[in-house]
Amino acid sequence: MSLHVFWHPSSLEHDPGPGHPESTARLAAVLDELRMPHLVKTVVWRESESAETGVLLRGHTYEHVVALRAAHAQGGAFIDPDTRMNASTWPAALHAAGAAVGAALTALDGTPAFAAIRPPGHHATRSRAMGFCFLNNVAIAAYAALERDGVARVLIVDWDVHHGNGTQDIVERDERIRYVSLHQWPLYPGTGREAERGVGNIFNVPQPPGLPRRHYQAVLQAAVDRATDGWTPDLILISAGFDAMAGDPLAGFTLEPEDYAWWVERWKTIGAPMAAVLEGGYVPHRIRYAAAATVAALA
């Protein structure tokens, strides 16, 4: 089966500043790997559209969108010490959201998809940019999918090593969406306790660093099993951050590229269409292989 990769050149122009871990090199490495000969017959390249305001308002407040537009009009801004806009950030964020929506809708049409994008999105709350993130790509995509006829339930699985506080903030009162997150605890942003359940739709799996890979595999799989027990999703969206791999400078998990493929293969048995959206991961020569493993498993 082929797989559609959504991307846009603007993602390579967003620059959060010298020495920042969320660098252009991350995405450049992923794109380079997905163009390698062993994936040529699998990947269909799709240039993403820019998300329109109505699409953004599915996940964010109007005031949030207006504030980001204003910062763009001024040539950029420091949102917080970790989150900086340059002149190219807003177009990149709009195309990243558009790529996530495109990937979700393509999956619903029967072809798995991967959004190879930056800036990432899962820390962006309904009303705040933070943690390298401006727009919550995966949440926006989930709400776009729910507007399709026949789509009533969306499962979001977040394997980024940091808790997706923004995604949880956006969906935690919506019974149509279930959110499962495996993340290191304690670690930025300090959210993601097991007791945070939303309306029974939040399944957080906080874990200490340095445990064997098989442990992390098992606890995330168990959480997905709980989330889908008696509740079959019409779409599965993956917040695919690859900073849970061994050697990432921002965390201490021990995963390897094949672990992501292991999860994808098991979630296929749920029987729902599947798409993935790139989040974190800060060692370019490592995340390229994890992205390729994920794409190969999805396809």
CATH topology: Arginase, Chain A
Q: What do the pLDDT scores average to?
A: 98
Number of strands: 10
CATH homologous superfamily title? Histone deacetylase domain
Q: What is the distance, rounded to the nearest whole angstrom, between the alpha carbons of the first and last residues?
A: 5 Å
CATH architectural category: 3-Layer(aba) Sandwich
Gross geometry: globular
How would you describe this structure to a colleague?
The protein has 299 residues and is α/β, with parallel strands linked by helices. The protein has helices spanning 24-34, 53-56, 62-73, 89-108, 137-146, 165-171, 213-228, 257-267, 284-298; strands spanning 3-7, 43-47, 77-80, 83-85, 113-115, 154-158, 177-184, 202-207, 235-240, 274-278. The longest helix has 20 residues, at 89-108. The protein is globular. The termini are close together.
Which tags fit this structure?
single chain, 299 residues, alpha/beta, Arginase, Chain A, 8-stranded parallel β-sheet, 17% strand, globular
Write the layout of secondary structure elements.
Elements: E1 3-7, H1 24-34, E2 43-47, H2 53-56, H3 62-73, E3 77-80, E4 83-85, H4 89-108, E5 113-115, H5 137-146, E6 154-158, H6 165-171, E7 177-184, E8 202-207, H7 213-228, E9 235-240, H8 257-267, E10 274-278, H9 284-298
Parallel strand pairs: 1-2, 1-5, 5-10, 6-7, 6-9, 7-8, 9-10
Antiparallel strand pairs: 3-4
